[in-house]
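Our preliminary data section would be incomplete without showing what the modeling component actually yields. Below, a chain of 142 amino acids is followed by its predicted structure, encoded as tokens that our downstream tools consume directly.
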Amino acid sequence: MQRGRSLGAQALMIALVLIGLGFGYSFAREVVQAQRLANQGEVSRQANEALAAGNRKLARDLQYYQSDAYAEMRARTDLNMRLPNEQIVLPVLTDTLTPPAASVAGSPTGASQAADQATTRNPTMLAARPWDRWLALFGTGR
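Predicted structure:
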């Protein structure tokens, strides 16, 4: 009888261990699945935040593009339009290396040189940076 009881007890113990291992495996699988879903949720949350930030930027851009300030800026830059009460200043580029007529008038060769310089453009002036041309135009050139 002793042997039958111990054999039954061992079988019961093996069955309990196997059931416990099954529960442990199932629990571990659920923990891994929960971690995977938490990671996926975090990635989705970050993607949603990025999309929301992009939508806010697009809304600000749309508001700007529908504003009068944007329409005025585009009319000024692309269509070269101005308001009726504005005065337009058109810069006239002159050759800054041409001596004044009063200083050249005294020498006979100076007048012809001044005429030659006035008829031909200075290549360095054409290649100059825009601000250098403006400075030269207003007499504060380098």
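Residues 103-108 have pLDDT under 50 and may be disordered. The two ends are 119 Å apart (CA to CA). Preliminary results of this kind motivate Aim 1 of the renewal.
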